Each structure stands twice: as C-alpha cells, then as structure tokens.
UniProtKB/TrEMBL annotation, chain A:
Record's keyword annotation contains Transmembrane helix: yes
Residues that span the membrane, as ranges: 72-90
Pfam families: FecR (PF04773), FecR_C (PF16344)
Keywords, in A-Z order: Membrane, Transmembrane, Transmembrane helix
Organism: Pedobacter steynii
Coiled coil stretches, renumbered: none
Record's protein name: FecR protein
Domain Protein FecR C-terminal: 307-375
Taxonomic lineage of the native organism: Bacteria, Pseudomonadati, Bacteroidota, Sphingobacteriia, Sphingobacteriales
UniProtKB/TrEMBL annotation, chain B:
A biological process term (GO) from this entry: DNA-templated transcription initiation
Entry keyword ATP-binding: no
Keywords annotated in UniProt: Sigma factor, Transcription, Transcription regulation
UniProt record similarity statement: Belongs to the sigma-70 factor family. ECF subfamily.
Listed SUPFAM superfamilies: Sigma2 domain of RNA polymerase sigma factors (SSF88946), Sigma3 and sigma4 domains of RNA polymerase sigma factors (SSF88659)
Protein's name according to its UniProt entry: RNA polymerase sigma-70 factor, ECF subfamily
Organism: Pedobacter steynii
Domain RNA polymerase sigma-70 region: 29-93
Amino acid sequence: MKNKSAEALLFKYNNGTASEEEIAWVESWYLKFEDKIQDIDPEQIKADELESWSLLQLQLVEKTPFKRWKTIGIAATIILVAAAGLVFYTNKEVKLPDKSSRAYAYHNDLPPGQDKAILTLSSGKKIVLVKATEGTIAEQNGIIITKTNQGELRYGMNAISLDHRPIYNTLETPKGGQYRLILPDGTKVWLNAASSLKYPVSFLQAERTVSLDGEAYFEVKENKDRPFIVHTRLQNVEVLGTHFNINSYDDDPQTKTTLLKGRVKVSSTKHSASKILNPGDQAIQNSSQLYVKTVDAEESVAWKNGYFQFKDEQIGSIMRKIARWYDVEIEYKKGVNKNETFSGTISRFDHVSKVLEKLELTKAVHFQIEGRTISVQK
Amino acid sequence: MNDYREFSDVELCRLLTEGNHAAFNEIHKRYYSLLYRHAYKRLPHREEVKDILQELFAFIWNNRNTLVLSSGLASYLYVATRNRVINVFNRQKIRDEYADSLQGFLDQGENITDWAIRVKELTILVEKEVASLPPQMRKVFELSRNAHMTYQEIGEMLNTSPLTVKKQIHNTLKILREKLGANVFFLFF
C-alpha cells in the first residue's frame, strides 16, 4: 500500500474523483508542505514577471479590432486659424460649452497612447515591447537587439555574419502605441500608432530595403553606395541619406511622403510615374495620380514631436489620427458636415477629452465618448 | 490618469469584467510575484511555475465575464495556484518525491476537514510577508484582500476615512513590493 495510496490520491484529486475527505487530506498536506527553497533570486522573478505580462499583453493587443473608414469628400468651408500653438480659434465668438453636459459626454475619458510595440523575429517569435522593457531583448545570428535608455530599439552587430541571406524582423505598433528604432546601419525610425515596419536585421545587400504600413519618420544614415528604399502600398521612396516622413495608412485615401532634408525619389507603385523631392515638398499618391505640392514640412512630423498639428484638415482625417492614437472607434452622427476643415496644434500627451474640447470650441462639431467609441455630432 | 495601484481588489475585478487592460495589469502586478514565490518554493521548476501562472492569468482574462469570485480575488488566485501546483505534482516524472511526502503525511498527519479553514490557512501561507506589517496596515490589507470589502466599507468598519484606507493600502503594497524584491519593476510602470 505504501506509496500506492498517496499516488492514487494525487491522481484522484487531479481528475476530480476524490471524495471530500480525500480532498481534505491532500489540501491539508499541501499546507504543511515544507519549503524546498529558502530564497529565490528577485531578478529571476522580475524577469519572469515581465515576460509573463508581455505574453499576456500580446493577447490583449491581438484582439483590438481595426476598423476602416470610407474616403471623405473634398472642399473646405470653414477655415480656422491656429494661434499660440495650443488653442483652436474661430471667427465666431467662443463660448465655453455647458459644464454639466460636458461632464456627462466625457465621463469616460481616455488616456493618450504610449511607447509600445510588438517585435516579430524571423523565427516568428513575438516580443511585446512596453515602457518597462529593458536591456537585451533578443540575439539572432550575431545581431543583438537592445532597448536603449532613451527607449529606442537598437540593432547592433555582435559578430560578423557571413550569411548574406537577409533575416527580416517586423516592428508593429498597435493603436495607442508608438516606438523608435535604430536600424543596423544607424538609420533612425519613428513609428507612429497602428503602423508596421519590416526590415532586415543587417544591411549586407547592395540596397537597404524596408517596407512600411502606416506612418513613420526616417532619418536615413548617409551611404552613397547603398540606397535606402522604403516600399509602401502606393509609393516607393528611394533615398541616399535624408530626413523624411511617410504617411501610408490603409484607411487613408492617399500616401504622402514629405521631405525635410536632403533629396528623395518617389515612385508610384500604381503606374510608372516618379518625382524628385526637395525639402518642403510633399509627394501625394492617390488612387490615380502622383503629384507634388509644397507644404509646411514640420506639420507632417508634428506627431513625432508630440503634437497633433492640423492645417485645413477635414474632420474625417483628424478623427482617424485620434482613433489610432487613443485606440478608439469613431462614429458619425447624422448632420455632421464632413467637408469642414480645422487648423490647430495640440499636445498628443493629454487625455482625449482635452483634444476634443479644443475642437469643440469652434462650435462646428461636438463629441461624446461611450466606452471606446467617440461619436461626432453636429 | 487613474492610479490603479490605489484600487481595491473588488474595484479591479469590476473593471476587469469591463475588459479594462490597466486593471488586469494591476492584478498581474499585485499578485504575480506573490504567487510565483509560493509556487516556486513548493515546485522549484522555473518553467513549470511560469507555465502555471501564465495559464492562470490567461484564464482569468479570457473568462473575465463569467468568472465568479465569490470568496474574493486573492483567495481565488491562491486556490487556483495551489490546484495547479498539485496538478504538476501528479505528473509521472516528479510524482515520486511528492508522493513520498504525502504518504508520510497520511501516515502521521491530521487533516483539516473544513474547506474554508483550509483556504484561510492557504492565504496565511501565501501572504507570510504580510504578517510582518504594522498591525493597522495589516488589518486594512487583510480586509481589502480577504474580506473583499471596498475602501468605503473598510473605512466605516475601522472608523477612518476611505482616503486613509486608500493611503494605507498604497503604503502596504509599496512595502510588500519591496519585500518581494520587485520594486524596480514597479517603479517603471
């Protein structure tokens, strides 16, 4: 009977066939069970806790639905001018909205996005990067991936790899996330919310090639022998060494590349057109054509500097930016004039209500937050 | 932004059922290292312990709408961890040494027939670190954890304001986290 009965008891306990008394025996024994280990290395617990939360976060992130919106019409009716960089003004008299109703509309305020992303290694392993992620994240074929004190992801060479086959990693931000990355050639990339960048972990080919969905700002390390090429859905951008922003979201009708410094060549993926950009130029590709206009280039990179900056921008486009950054869905109530445009600048690091309140001061639109949905009203 | 560290377990559970990520994160932060220590000391196999806790937290999130925490979040987690640990004991490879210990207990020990007392003892076992807290702090902590009362209710019971209760919980958690050696991590959140 000796060990037999104990084994049988454990077995019955686990498959749920133990009687009340048997359960009491096992559970009482468990209470008296001596500690086998006196002390555990706190570093070990910390590391395992971090890893555990990373894995859990992946489950949370993966279930966030992406919603797409219809293209919005053109024409501007009301133009509002921004002043002082933080307030929206209108030519109408600004009246503060009724406090009590505001309190209700914003009873469910939402915090801004933050540094978070998912890194997918070539092996398919996913690593969730959050604020608390620190130090070495992964090591692959002689390449070390670390997170710097400044919170950016950095690729460094550990050993010279003679394997010339490119290994690709993907950095992906969810809605409400952004991340910074330094590629192995020293190129810096700022990835905006709901975006993804696929890149080789070492640039050993004649060309440095990456693919982008969503929005990113690049500061490309100059290398005359190795052009840097960004592929997007509607444009390919070829550069030698320069600073530029690409906005290429699936739910936006156009892809825009804005040049801040240097020179780039933008080609359409739709037809054979290509354009050379000078600083301050923006290449826009819509469903039918590629054209260039002169813009305030700073406006296109306001997001990376922590601002929303709108110039004559339609409500649909503004709300798409808010949706990506605050991880919300947008709903339009009847009677909203989608052609109205707004201008202004506001911090991205306030709660969503602050942003909406500024827009409401124009009296052209009103908002209500319900759960994770913002409804736009007349 | 709300400081979720100041929320009681009851409030966190309510937010959890609404699918609140931050509340789930706080539950994870609050209990992970505590459960880890408890499990690891009985089952010194790192991967097994990690798996047990991963499954447990994933289960809580996936079943947040149907989870019934009648005896409170803490008890639920302790019991669920214990059951999973015992479950691993039962696996062929490591069964023998544990079976010996159980056999020894069967031969000499006494069992506790009352289920509720066993859960209470389990709670004491897991929360050993709590025992060294100043008495008032411990009282507040235990009421919040184990009697699963809100700050308001605890305040009324102890004749202090909910705000004081909140502050004490906050301090308690801080001390606990330091004891558990996870403070560096928490600072970053």
